[in-house]
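Weekly structure sync - notes
Attendees: PM, LS, DV (DV joined late)
Agenda: review two folding runs queued last week.

Item 1: First target. Sequence and structure tokens pasted below for the record.
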Amino acid sequence: MSQNFGDFQNEIYLAGLSGKMPLLPVDFATLEEQAKQAMSPSVWSYVAGGCGDEFTQRNNAEAFNRYGIVPRMFNGAAKRDLSVSLFGRTLSAPVFLCPIGVVGLCSSDNHGDLRVAEAAAKTGVPMMASTLSQDPMEEVAKKLDGTPSYFQLYTPKDRDLALSFISRAENAGFEALVVTLDTWVTGWRPRDLNSANFPQLRGLCLANYFSDPHFLKRLKKPVAEDPAAAIHEWVNIFGHIMTWDDLKWMREATRLPIVLKGICHPDDARRAADAGIDAIQCSNHGGRQANGGIAALSMLKDVIFAVPDMPVLFDSGVRSGTDVAKALAMGAAAVGIGRSHAYALAAGGTEGVIHHLRSILAETDLLMAVNGYPTIADLRSAGVRQTR
């Protein structure tokens, strides 16, 4: 599936000859500033913020500077192959769109989950759809139009509701179940606390709950008649504290591959493999949930070494195509794009997300080309070196 994603830069330069500028900036820092102007202060603080003094959030991004790719000359290729295999599918690109619980609020029409799904469908980049969504998962799936996609589950305390979510995800066509492990309670987020801002407590991004038959049975009145009671019920059932014993019923509940998101310790990865889990997502939630921790990237190689026969996905701190290439070189099966695609959505809608994904992939592709790695297998074989 050779495809020169790097040709995107030629499109940009040639368009510039006729005075046409890129839709959005191609670098993270400038994109972030543009998105800040487009987003409301409350949504901006929620998306941009992290836990505590945000050390872990910064450390995630800075960790990439501690690793480098060594160039190999006389080894270039006119065509590069960035395809990867995941859950029985061959993907043309080694990236996916991370679940973001308020991405629905990041587009001007407050249907950002649908807009991201449209971008996924137009690029072929898989989307992890969040439990916390402005639109029901079935509507998101329709916009994905058969593009590989995965449903991210925040496991509720009500097991029947969890089973309902899982069944709905299967029926909607999602191809894997991604279980987030580190969000049964929210971390200490000063940006949001200082403005008393928690979108879900205002009834936002709860469409999967408010459209679920089992959840609705828990209510005395329809959501429209008593939204406050519906929100209160969501508070009551959100956040089941997962234990290893939960994997048994969850494994029995679905035929989908199960991904555990939030595994950063090799012993946890081994235990997940022993429990029959299909994949790991090495992640610390981008620094949003726990502060003072080790960068997720610094744990990636240990996790991969612990489960050599299991795909290990990665996210946390990815800001560029260079970051993507480094994570792939370290062995990641695929790399998640998080905050930055929410910024692209805010600044440019569906087309903004497409532009951003093309920019990320172009940078990854050109980095591989210049460094002499025509395939991801070549890149992984070379690995990375410490830069400091």
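Item 2: Second target, run right after the first with the same settings.
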Amino acid sequence: MSHHIVEVKDLRYTYPDGNAALHGVSFRITHGESVAVVGANGAGKSTLLLHLNGCLIPEAGSVRIGDFPLNKKTLHHVRRTVGMIFQDPDDQLFMPLVHDDVAFGPLNLGLPPEEVELRVNDALATVGASHLKNRPPYRLSGGEKRSVAIASVLSMSPSILVMDEPTSNLDPRGRRQLINLLCTFHHTIIIATHDLDMVLDVCSRTIVLNEGRVLADGPTFDILADDDILDSSRLEKPLRLRVCDFCNRQLNAG
């Protein structure tokens, strides 16, 4: 299962405008792990994720996906292994019909038409979007676009699923459907998000980034219950882990 492993060593990246986004980030994720990457705005989460499927190439340090070090020569192999779902679904949906967007990846793999159709139908069914198959993406709601974007990645059968703020702009029902879907994915999942309650549901491990560095890395509950870590990284404790003032008053009154 080495193709499911993600290994980042001393990763550093500075944007052309001089903004240093990552300062020596290191971690190793093994097969089947569900890992959240959390931190305040500007912590480096999106920059890190863009390195995991080759949208960005390390300027210092290294990224290894399975047996392949990430570089320009290995991009094809890395992108077949890592399915990336961007924060804005419009960045992924560009074809006239939903069917065409979901079929785009498998077609570029050179799969036969029968296999492509099977993958399209399976991926849309998995995200509950079969009824959108012949709709133009620009006519979809934000939640529907999110579902189709996920389907367009699932149709590639990735070993590693990488998602940037997957619950943003979803209504409560759409958010719950997404969480249920992610809980059924048995390969490696890496999610950058501010939705810490969703992290509790989906991710067994959490990496905290702060100003481009790893501040903490460990079991999700331990990380999200640690007030010092949350304060240092400018994060708020998930709602379900907060002490209810009303309940405390009732207990004290009793």
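Discussion on item 2: The chain has a mean pLDDT of 90.
Action: LS to circulate a short write-up before next sync.
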